[in-house]
Amino acid sequence: MERLPHPAAVWMANLLVPGSGLVLLGRVLAGTVLALLWAAAAAGLLVGLLVWPDAMDPGPVVSLGVLTGILYGTGQVLTFARGRAVRRRASDASPDAAFLEVLAATLQGRTDEAEAACKALLRQDPDDVEATLHLGVLAARSGRRAAAERYLRRARFLDDAGRWDFRIQRELA
């Protein structure tokens, strides 16, 4: 994955112009549109307050102020949410490395160690489909049919995309 900008740089850019933090995080179109809308609303507000204060009624000035505040808040919230999602996805490599160790332990016949590692992964993320599915397979291989069915049904419930559906059906058969 490409190198992410420092969170302080994203935060500072977004403080100056809402939406610019989104551009730094890869959402170019959404960030640009939000920045342009905010700039237009802020310019209208400044014109109404500083350039022609007597020419504008208080109603449009208040409306522009509210719109500017909403756009500013939206920019902050969207950038925060996008930054969290990008950083979470970047840090998701560590469970993959741990799961590779689980697979290696299984292939080497160390099923107790693999089962303990899967349960540790599930303590970190209870919705981990791969770890749940692997626990079901390990339970089926060791003859614990009830536990295997419980894990496999849980894996089927967690598998939104249907990626593991064939394997789950095969193990349940």
Helix and strand arrangement:
Elements: H1 7-16, H2 20-24, H3 28-51, H4 58-90, H5 93-107, H6 111-124, H7 129-141, H8 145-158, H9 165-172
Helix pairs in contact: 1-4, 3-4, 5-6, 6-7, 7-8, 8-9
Feature tags:
2 domains; single chain; mainly alpha; 0% strand; 9 helices; Serine Threonine Protein Phosphatase 5, Tetratricopeptide repeat; 173 residues; elongated
Summary, kept brief:
With 173 residues, this protein is mainly alpha-helical.
Protein architecture, described:
With 173 residues, this protein is mostly helical. It has two domains: 7-90; 93-172, Tetratricopeptide repeat domain (Serine Threonine Protein Phosphatase 5, Tetratricopeptide repeat, Alpha Horseshoe). Helices cover 79% and strands 0% of the residues. The protein is built from nine helices and no strands. The chain has helices at residues 7-16, 20-24, 28-51, 58-90, 93-107, 111-124, 129-141, 145-158, 165-172. Helix 5 (93-107) runs antiparallel to helix 6 and helix 6 packs antiparallel against helix 7. The longest helix has 33 residues, at 58-90. The chain is elongated, with a radius of gyration of 26 Å.
**Rounded mean pLDDT score:** 81
Helix content: over 70%
What is the terminal separation in angstroms? 39 Å
Number of helices: 9
Shape: elongated
